[in-house]
Hints:
Blueprint: E1 2-8, E2 14-16, E3 22-27, E4 34-39, E5 45-54, E6 59-60, E7 68-73, E8 77-84, E9 114-119, E10 130-133, E11 142-153, E12 158-164, E13 175-181, E14 187-189, E15 193-195, E16 200-205, E17 209-220
Antiparallel strand pairs: 1-8, 2-7, 3-6, 3-8, 4-5, 4-7, 9-17, 10-16, 11-14, 11-15, 11-17, 12-13, 12-16
Amino acid sequence: xxxxxxxxxxxxxxxxxxxxxxxxxxxxxxxxxxxxxxxxxxxxxxxxxxxxxxxxxxxxxxxxxxxxxxxxxxxxxxxxxxxxxxxxxxxxxxxxxxxxxxxxxxxxxxxxxxxxxxxxxxxxxxxxxxxxxxxxxxxxxxxxxxxxxxxxxxxxxxxxxxxxxxxxxxxxxxxxxxxxxxxxxxxxxxxxxxxxxxxxxxxxxxxxxxxxxxxxxxxxx
Length: 221
């Protein structure tokens, strides 16, 4: 396979003594300004070997191949073309690509519409819930994007994030979305969770909390 880029003067034919069985015009500045003649070794045009008004992307594959190529341009320009044997070739398209609208060039990050954050003894009473999202606000569902819980108490208790239609009475009363065990560090859930319509979000611990961190990012749909 051979790629050639050649400057042409308007109306002046140029000949290339390069054999092949495929010719493709890769680029030319003037659409329909190029004429191509595929010839045998004696300079005689082969059957169906003449193409006029050729544009970029046009290719010719004559039976039996060719021994030489003659190209004429009606304007002064640079023409780039490919001559090859066998299966080699190209499917490139000359020109420019225009993209409509706004294109994001970097990640925009996590999108959310609501958040809850607290530090310290957020749950000072055992088995008494603190509301994060009121169930009456959830008419089409809630997506919990991120939940981070860290819990400390005087024993071996735990704190949970629960989805329920009313305030839960215990750490297992509802849909448990995240669990933090006393002294075990931060429990993080970052896989998006969908909470069905009619349910709110609550935090609750089974022992009196003496410290901790609570963080929830969510979107009410």
